[in-house]
Amino acid sequence: MESTIFRKIMVATDGSELVKRAVEVAVEIARISEAKLYAVHVIELESNSIFHSLNEEQKKALREQLHIEGKKATDFVEDIGRTANVGVESIIFEGNPVNGILDFTEQNDIDLIVMGTHGKTGLERFLIGSVSENVVRHSNRPVLVVRGESSDLLFKTLLNKSKKI
Questions:
Q1: Where are the domains of the chain?
Q2: Contact 9, 38 (CB under 8 A)
Q3: Is the pTM higher than 0.85?
Q4: pLDDT single digits (tens) 124-155
Q5: CATH class of this structure's domain 8-154
């Protein structure tokens, strides 16, 4: 039975352990809904004061390294998706994570955004507001925020419900 509620789902990933749980939930919802899943990784450079202090060669090396990390993060989503028989399209781009996620969502007519509560951003993000919180505040689309430590319960619940269908 194909769902008409979620045709396109986006999961924002930074490759952190806490976000991996959100990936599992996004893949399961996409599987149940028969939706396409987009794995989005946003590289934030311009607001990083260290980036601006580097010379051009160092900036290039850092940019390349961050793209490699982004590829690892989206590859993880693709691997989980492949296991669940879910099509995943990976997108990596540079910019402000909140604006990038919101713009991507609007431009691609995404039906559901799935994110973890916390990623790699640490204390700095805790003090100024998390990416997830800002996406929830400004999105015109539904946003599912998955807690890293408790998503197993949601994942198991979804899995059990899908087995009953």
A1: 8-154
A2: yes
A3: no
A4: 444 334 888 999 999 999 999 998 754 454 45
A5: alpha beta
